[in-house]
Automatic annotation (TrEMBL):
A Pfam match: NAD_binding_10
Protein name: NAD(P)-binding domain-containing protein
Gene3D superfamilies recorded: NAD(P)-binding Rossmann-like Domain
Signal peptide: none
UniProt family annotation: Belongs to the avfA family.
Residue ranges of every copy of the NAD(P)-binding domain listed in the record: 9-232
Length: 278
């Protein structure tokens, strides 16, 4: 089936690796970029591919609320949305909040509230959580605390807020569709793909599931993982992923079969309360 994908943050490093992989599946991609100066770079990614590539010049910084995001969704008409945008540490705390939290939350809410959109995948990071994962070592937890509280505090606050909105609202929609008798494989999938420290190494194999948060993973592998997750029926929830020894597609199928969701250990009621205030 030919899917129509809105890729938000299309000029990012992961997105530029991802775009040809999506198009190679005969999926159609609208790559959303912030500047017309980036358009030629993106258009080259679609050459010789079976899927159709469109470029939308529209800055995520202009998306202030769900209504703004909805206008873009109405224009593009995707059935899947991938969020791979980010402030990248530029512009200080205000810009990080504007992009990594406010715009991300706006697109998340608008996508989940659109019946025609069936999947929303956001690229987060392994340490984006409030509680210690039950399988983490002391060193894992200490490393996460250092990153979140000392190294990237503004980014952490923004990403965890967006992750929680996706978690809570995706579950609500999934449960509503279940009550209506929608088959499980046709219900909404909210996915937080959570890579370790990013590198520019070639694509390789992975470790996923209940893993350490201190691993690395190449951007190329992240791109391949996004495709595998989107293509695999039943993939949803939080998926931590780093370099490892398992084939990407096999790893994704395994965690689905085993029912692993790395959100385990988080306080869902607390998430609901915080999301209600956003």
């Amino acid at each position: 089936m030919a899917h129509n994908i809105l890729l938000i943050g299309g000029h990012g490093k992961v997105s530029q690796l991802l775009t040809p992989l999506l198009l190679a599946r005969s999926w159609n991609v609208t790559s959303m970029i912030r500047s017309a100066d980036q358009k030629a770079t993106i258009e080259k990614l679609g050459q010789g591919q079976p899927g159709k590539l469109s470029v939308l010049v529209s800055s995520v910084e202009d998306v202030k609320d769900e209504g703004d995001a909805q206008k873009i969704l109405d224009q593009v008409k995707p059935d899947w949305v991938v969020w791979s945008a980010g402030a990248g540490g530029r512009g200080g705390a205000p810009r990080t909040k504007a992009i990594d939290q406010d715009a991300a939350v706006a697109f998340t809410k608008a996508s989940i509230h659109a019946p025609s959109i069936k999947k929303f995948l956001t690229v987060s990071y392994t340490a984006s959580r409030r509680n210690r994962a039950p399988w983490w070592t002391d060193a894992d937890w200490e490393g996460a605390q250092k990153v979140n509280n000392e190294v990237l505090p503004h980014y952490y606050k923004a990403k965890i807020a967006a992750d929680e909105v996706l978690t809570v609202l995706a579950k609500e929609r999934f449960d509503e569709e279940a009550k209506k008798g929608v088959p499980e494989n046709e219900r909404f999938a909210g996915i937080s793909l959570r890579p370790g420290t990013l590198t520019d190494e070639p694509a390789g194999k992975v470790a996923t599931g209940k893993i350490s948060n201190r691993g690395k993973i190449s951007r190329a592998t992240v791109a391949e993982s996004i495709v595998a997750v989107l293509a695999t029926e039943g993939a949803r929830g939080w998926i931590d992923i780093v370099d490892g020894e398992e084939d990407v597609e096999a790893a994704v199928k395994r965690i689905i079969k085993e029912g692993i969701d790395d959100v385990e250990g988080e306080d869902f009621e607390g998430q609901k309360e915080r999301v209600s205030k956003l």
